[in-house]
Amino acid sequence: xxxxxxxxxxxxxxxxxxxxxxxxxxxxxxxxxxxxxxxxxxxxxxxxxxxxxxxxxxxxxxxxxxxxxxxxxxxxxxxxxxxxxxxxxxxxxxxxxxxxxxxxxxxxxxxxxxxxxxxxxxxxxxxxxxxxxxxxxxxxxxxxxxxxxxxxxxxxxxxxxxxxxxxxxxxxxxxxx
Length: 177
Hints:
By secondary structure, this protein is mostly helical. It has 2 domains: about 10-55; about 60-170, Up-down Bundle (AhpD-like). Helix content is about 65%, strand content about 0%. The protein has 9 helices and no strands. The chain has helices at about 15-25, 30-35, 40-55, 60-75, 80-90, 95-105, 115-130, 135-145, 150-170. It is globular. The two termini are about 15 Å apart. The model has no long low-confidence stretch (mean pLDDT about 95).
């Protein structure tokens, strides 16, 4: 049980009930992650919009985004997010557990094309040591064909993952997958 009060789907009313219906249609169930946000339906709505932005991103692949989330959460010691995103890499994207472990040991070992690996390493640098990011780092990604919007989107994804890690760990979310 999280240490803040949450609202179960059967007890939801109004806007929260509507959001839960949308989530159930998309995911088939209401996960603990959604119920945690039930304390603030407007924040849940914002989180759903954030997720929706990345679901069908034109440039940033599901694998790249899952790698970003896994490695940001690994550094933040958020076991819920590390395990969830590692499972996504394995169960949805065909990675082997050894591939995930190799990436966690050294992000340069991520099973991504060079272009995506460059973006992954940039995001990790931006999230972990933002003052060390230089114009040359951004230019390298432009040279790989990424737009400034892509670079901002990927960095935002990593930064927001840090915030999610904090929320999930602070309120003691339980694994439900």
